[in-house]
Amino acid sequence: MGKFFLYIIFFSLFICIDTYSQNTFGSYALPYPSIYYQEVTNKKDLALQLNLDKVIKANPVWKKLAKQNRMSVAVVDLRQMNNIRYASVNGNNMVYAASLPKIAVLLSAMEAVDEGCLEYTPTLKKDLRLMIAKSNNAATTRVIEALGYDKIAATMTSEKYKLYDKYKGGGLWVGKKYAKAGHKKPDPLKGLSHAANVDQVARFYTMLAYGKLVNSEMNLEIMNYMIKPGINHKFVKTLKKIAPRADIYRKSGSWRQFHCDSALVFEGEDRRYIIVALIEDRRGGQICTNLVAKVEEALGMNAKPIIPILKKKRQQILKPGKL
């Protein structure tokens, strides 16, 4: 009886240690523990930056667009939970971002629900899902009307998130309904109604990955709205082919020549990253579709890194990528 009791204790301890190891070091599921959250701007990686720069320069169209500030790209390597890597091209260049900034409306709505300022009704839940998965403009407009522009701006500029800072290139901003009529509240830096830069979108997804949006409960709600995209184009079109079992948390946007996409991709041990692209070009949708495989190359996935990993002491980068 004594030996059996000791066996049970030992077995239970083994399970606990294994679970702790998975959650703390292996991290088989999202969100990662929030204590491991890192700011992307503090985790710029020279090797990843050089790889990203090289895949952009290798394509004459992409190279030209990047030089003209008409193509911005960001990537976050999440494979090491306690040591992420970040690289970007035109990272803090804020541009018109069509429907992508609807993630700002989603976060603001969940903050308002948590504060008790907005009732979390079945109707609101339906609108939030339509807004993100289907990018439905009417649903988005209803949520914006319930919140008001000031609430969205306050959430984006809050000390908690700092997803918009006019002194650091702007960021995520929604100052107009997704409708023809209605007054506007343009962003203070460039006067844009629906804006983003890849640095701040990457920060949003990194906070999502580490359970830092609103609180742990609401962060999971936000993840539930963003997973399983309902529009199969751009990043998703490629990911469905090369990683059909991957979890994809995503929001895209398109309007005239403006094409944007953003996603948190999570599958197994090797495919864990965030990718963001903001493009001003009529070919932007196809560029996003083609970009995924090249970003995975830059990450060293399914191919050797374009540039060998440098020694640790040389891996910090001083400036954001700009071609």
CATH superfamily of the largest domain: DD-peptidase/beta-lactamase superfamily
Shape field: globular
CATH class of the largest domain: Alpha Beta
Uncertain parts: 4-26, 303-322
Work out the number of β strands. Answer: 10
**Radius of gyration, Cα only, in angstroms?**
20 Å
Beta fraction: 15-25%
Mean pLDDT across the residues is 89
User: What is the correct CATH architecture of the largest domain?
Assistant: 3-Layer(aba) Sandwich
- What strand line-up does the widest sheet have? 2-1-10-9-8
- The oligomeric state is single chain
Q: Briefly note the structural class of the backbone.
A: alpha+beta
**Please, how many domains?**
2
Q: Distance between the terminal alpha carbons, to the nearest Å?
A: 71 Å
Portion of residues within helices: 40-55%
The biggest sheet amounts to:
5 strands, antiparallel
Q: Say what the CATH topology of the largest domain is.
A: Beta-lactamase
| Total helical elements | 11
Q: Could you name the key traits of this structure?
A:
16% strand; 323 residues; alpha+beta; 2 domains
SSE arrangement:
Blueprint: H1 2-26, H2 46-57, H3 60-67, E1 71-77, E2 85-89, E3 95-96, H4 102-115, H5 122-133, H6 137-147, H7 149-157, E4 164-165, E5 170-171, E6 173-174, E7 194-196, H8 198-209, H9 216-226, H10 235-242, E8 247-255, E9 258-267, E10 271-280, H11 284-298
Antiparallel strand pairs: 1-2, 1-10, 3-7, 4-5, 6-7, 8-9, 9-10
Helix pairs in contact: 2-11, 4-6, 4-7, 5-6, 10-11
